[in-house]
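FAQ: What does a multi-protein file look like?

Like this. Sequence, then tokens, then the next protein.
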Amino acid sequence: MKHMVKNRLFLILKLVVTLFVISPFYIAVIYSVKSKPEMVSNRLAFPKVIHWDNFTRAIETSNFGLAMKNSLFTTVAAVLVITLICTMSAYIIARKNNRFYNAVYYIFVGAMIIPFQSIMTPLYIDMTKWRLLNTLYGFIMAKIGFQIAFTVLLVSGFVKGIPRELEEAAAIDGAGIYSIFFRIVFPLMKPIILTSVVLNTLNVWNDFQMSLTLLQKKTVRNVPLTQYFFFGENSIELGLAFALFILSMIPILILYLTLQKYIIGGITSGAVKG
């Protein structure tokens, strides 16, 4: 009897937490297709008439197309470079068991502890000196630098679980280190690579604080910045603001739903094997 009561209480708790989590998304969806009068009269009810024009007006007035282009370019470029650099670095760190590479590993661990706020001002000054402020390339470089430590630690833990015998057999057959890595090790790293791609994509795409620091001109604003300024400029037109929010979420939501099985699996395997 007590066990049944505990299960029911736990189920109720899960339902409450679920409602608490999805309620903001529900409000955003219904407000994005509501008119002004309906927002006042029926705040939480589904609209009687769906106003799809909120989406078209939001796109037209927010310069959303340019923001989406900027976000896609910075995200794809940063994630590609991060993936290429970190997979090779993680492989070397995982396989070379000496003081130098152990020191590099712990430097990466220490780098993850440093918050962005502590180096925000020096980064801004450096980007200004290098004439990379308000450029997409400057933002890409900064994101690569910040994501390398996390990705190397994630991937190196996975690489340690790959049997060395496969590499030794290839070396006996005359394969070089690049051939061993790209033909044997790299294909085996697919689960953790997909995991890192998803996590880094989420991080770069959703970045707001670094974007606000480095991308101040309208021509280089990405999706998060466009949302921020558009919401401030249209605080009265909540329908347009929430419509833009839904549009901004669609690409990353599709990616997450498509590859979500690799996120937990990759992190778990990397942690266990590390």
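And here is the next protein:
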Amino acid sequence: MDALPVAKSFIIGKIFNAKWVLERTKRDHALRVNVERISQQSDRLTQRLPEIHQCNSMGALRGLEGMAAKEYFYAFDDLILKSKDDFFFEERTRRPPLDRMNALLSFIYSVLTNDCCAALQGVGLDPYVGFMHVDRPGRASLALDLVEEFRPVIADRFALTLVNTGVIQAKDFEERENGGVFLSETGRKAVLGAWQRKKTEQIVHPYLQERISWGLVPYVQALLLTRFLRGDIDAYPPFMWK
């Protein structure tokens, strides 16, 4: 099977949802954010979508995804509305995260990837054999593929809500000798408790047009991926939140 069309679907979903996050913040908080910058970055994401459709190699797709991620994160600091001295975003840092916002994102991405891994196993797919991410021993490549479309609309919005509502504060983090910043044990417990509550919230799935909980979204998408791989549907429909 040609992996490129499936990988494209994952990234189209990711970029579409990233644009939605920017547009939703602009709509809801127009008086508190840099509308011009958010609009500019949203427009750039829109321009990436036809480029994704037209690209003809996995290397080109990874390059376009990387550029789109930078364009999205360029406006991310504008989405942080509270405690700006404690929570700010300049660029994505990992291994280790170098500030509180990156630490929070990394932790939530890890939790969401684990949920995707469980969802894939639940429908009989091997989470370690991916389409876009290169297979490595011990690396859940397919879970990393699937999580891409969920990062903006589930993980990023959840992280922003925790900060903007004061559920997570500066005291919930600790800095280590290597300069890395991580959630404390108390912080991790607070995030996981809020995560379990988030997963019970009901939505209407944009493709199925049926009510499900946020927590079931990875499982439903894994089911749709299975249906595509069996030939029951012509293409994999990414989760595109509206």
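Q: Is there any per-entry metadata?
A: Some entries carry free-text notes. For the entry above: Residues 3-230 form a domain with the Four Helix Bundle (Hemerythrin (Met), subunit A) fold (CATH 1.20.120.920).
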